[in-house]
Amino acid sequence: DGVTEVLAHRSDNLPEKFVQIPCSQDYDGHRRFEGCTPRKCGRGVTDAIVTREEAERIRRIAERGLSLGGSDGGASILDLHSGALSLGKHFVNLYRYFGDKIHDIFTEEDFALYRDVRQRIQRRIAQVFGISSSSMYLTKPTFFSRMNSTEAKTTHDEYWHPHVDKVTYGSFDYTSLLYLSDYTQDFGGGRFVFLDADSNKTVEPRAGRVSFFTSGSENLHRVEKVRWGTRFAITISFTCDPEHGIGDP
Questions:
Q1: What is the dihedral of CA 212, 214, 218, 222, to 10 degrees?
Q2: Considering the entire predicted model, what is its pTM?
Q3: Fe2OG dioxygenase domain location, by residue (predicted)?
Q4: Taking the domain 4-199+215-244, which CATH number applies?
Q5: How far apart are CA 36 and CA 55, in angstroms?
Q6: Spans of all domains in the chain
Q7: Which of 80, 153, 225, 226 could potentially form a cystine with 73 if both were Cys, beta carbons 3.0 to 4.6 Å apart?
Q8: Which sequence positions are flagged as catalytic?
C-alpha cells in the first residue's frame, strides 16, 4: 500500500489534530452555498467532544437495534433516520417491521443523546472549517455500522473499497465518524485509511474518537477489512444544500 503514516494512534488522547489539504474540484459540479460549501479542505481527529461513557451508551443503542437484524455478511447497518436495517441479504424498515415495539428498544434518552452528540460534532466541524453551523444540514445516509470478519455475501458487505463520499453521495460536503469501539482491543484490522498520492494516513478507532473531513476527492479513503472481533461506528454526514437535509430521528 505504499508508505503508511498514523494520523491518530488508539493510545493517543487528542484534543484536536487537523491537517489542511487543497480542495478537489468535486464541489464545482454542484450548487455552491456561500458560507458553507468547502473552500478550506482537510481532515481532523478529536477525542475531546464525546466521552468514552457516551460512546458506550451510543454503542448500546446500536447493539440493541442491530440485534433485531444483521447482515449475513460482515457489514450490518442501522439507520435510525430512515429505519433501514440489515437483515440477511436485504434491508427492512425497522419502524414498519417492528411498529410500536420500537418503544421497548429505544428510549427518548437514546434519541436525546444521539441528537446532542450530533450537534456537538456539527459545531466542531463548523468551527474548524470556518463556516456557520446553522448553514449545515444533516444528510443521508447517516447510519450505525457493525463490521466483523464474516465473509461478504453481497456487494453491501464489501465496505473496504476506496471511495469518495461526494462522488458516491452528491449531497455530502462534510463527513464525520464517531467510533464506538477500540482498535486492537475490540477488533483487529478495521483502521480508517486516507489514500494520498504520496502515502496512506490511518486513523486507529477508539471509543469516543471523532474523525471528520471534507467529502471530496481530496479525501479518498477506505476501511481495512476487520480481521477479528467487532467494530462499531456511526457515520454522520452533512450537506450545505437544505433540500438534502434530514431531521433527527
A1: 40
A2: 0.96
A3: 140-242
A4: 2.60.120
A5: 28
A6: 4-199+215-244
A7: 153
A8: 231
